[in-house]
Design brief:
Elements: E1 2-6, H1 13-27, E2 31-36, E3 50-54, H2 68-83, E4 87-91, H3 93-106, E5 118-123, H4 126-130, H5 138-146, E6 150-153, H6 156-166, E7 172-174, H7 190-196, E8 202-208, H8 216-227, E9 232-238, H9 243-253, E10 259-263, H10 269-274, E11 277-280, H11 289-296, E12 301-304, E13 319-322, H12 327-339, H13 341-355, H14 360-376
Parallel strand pairs: 1-2, 1-4, 2-3, 4-5, 5-6, 6-7, 8-9, 8-11, 9-10, 11-12, 12-13
Helix pairs in contact: 1-14, 2-3, 3-5, 8-9, 8-12, 11-13
Amino acid sequence: MKIGIICHPTYGGSGAVATELGKALAAKGHTVHFFSQSVPFRLGTFSKNIFYHEVDLNHYPLFECSFYSLGLASKIAEVAYYDKLDIVHAHYAIPHALSAMLARQILEDKCTLSKCFKLATTLHGTDITVVGADRGMEDVVRLAINKSDGVTSVSKYLKDETVRMFSPKKEITVIPNFVDTSLFFRTPKQEIREQLGIKDEKIVIHISNFRPVKCISDIIRIFDALTKRLDATLLLVGDGPERSESEILVRELGITGRVRFLGKLDDIVPLLSIADLMLMPSNVESFGLAALEAMACGVPVIATNAGGFPEFIVPGRHGYLLPPGDIEGMTEKAFLLLTDDAHWMACSEACVQQAKHYETASLVEQYERYYTRLLDEE
């Protein structure tokens, strides 16, 4: 198949999943064309089957907005026409599915609709729970869903939220996020600790795009409480709008020597391999890919019992789930895991086994079957 994938290039689960999906499809012999504002952060590979198309962000003095959505539509139409794309897979309804819809309209004079590409849209969360929650955007999001040939979501939670909020006509298929366990596995290296100036203390980690929903301040407060009871270091991987306030809070609490702001990193396996615990106290997560990747590396997770987390984290087995904002409860569970070696080892082993149920190869096969079904439909 010839497949176009539209995704955001920035640090986050949707871009990671879209990129890893495209790479896996290319490895199986499919031709994959990526469309994005810049090179997706996890692309980083060469393949005869992978092509990247950068979308120009044209600005004109007369207008106060960029023309990304229009430029994206034009680029999709161009590539779809000359390279005969079978499927265009939009990761996010807004704006990607809408741009793909416009691309099909552009092609109406050049090819019959039956020979035009099929549009698959994957909902990742922000397009539903943030953009879609804006009443002014409600009908736009619904249009993007209903005009897609097929719609998937990364969790049952997100599917249920989409149905509740939009009552879509399209059936939504759940295909969860995935992890490549041949890449994500625990290989602790002493030199990583040495490079970070970490000795024998426990290591707590968090990876995200530092948006408000990630509750970075809760992570810092939980960690601050832990440091009063044990020796530990906190690794914060990523960047975003909450970083500045987080750095201020770390200074106010007097724990700057125990917290490392590492910024955006592509290769996180070495860090996960030395980590003892991941904190994910998000208000809500449509799935929580960072948690799954941590589990594949044998890292137990303390997260919230909200969103998609309960679909793959069993409390007491893979870590713990607590209500959003329960800093005290999360602190106690974190302390338990970090001080009870037998319990930690059992959770670590169970995490690795659970991650295998979300293996990339299996989930990519689901997407292949889904694409084939769309192509077979008249």
